[in-house]
């Protein structure tokens, strides 16, 4: 059975109420004067933005400042040496040798190179040190060509303090061969030699020599597997 709805008596006899007038521009809230008069703020776009990105003015300025700081130390970096982000922190009176096309990235945290008087740090051609890397050298640290050093790695050739009463402070050179890759947060301790093409997984602590073309991981680092590569292999 169909149900018919009839309006209530109050609705049937109630007079119609007038609608409020539509809001016009005169009723809109007034914007602050400065917001109307101020020109829109916009960064470079299009061709100008691409040109600035390619030019990298801040990075070039950091590179120039680092070159000048190295020259004051008696070091002349190789051609196409480049710094990204913050300038590296160069501490101590020792020697720093830098080859061609070496890149130091300091966009989050600067690379820190501490080299004591009489010690030598060598960064061979096309070595790359990522943000936050620390190189602490009291004897000799050599980073070979095409090495990739991941963020927050530490290479320290001294333990700074004796472990047992009567012991001396241990100081022993560190050497990385060709095309070595250290993952994020790797720590390399005194006296370690890492062979060509070797890979050390993130967070590992290297306490002993690593042969060429092997992957090591853990704390203390141990063998994980072999690296499959030709002798002339270079990681991109």
From TrEMBL:
This is Acetyltransferase-like isoleucine patch superfamily enzyme. It comes from the Bacteria. Belongs to the transferase hexapeptide repeat family. Residues 1-39 are annotated as: Disordered. Keywords: Acyltransferase, Repeat, Transferase. It comes from Novosphingobium capsulatum. InterPro entries: Hexapep, Hexapep_transf_CS, Hexapeptide_acetyltransf, Trimer_LpxA-like_sf.
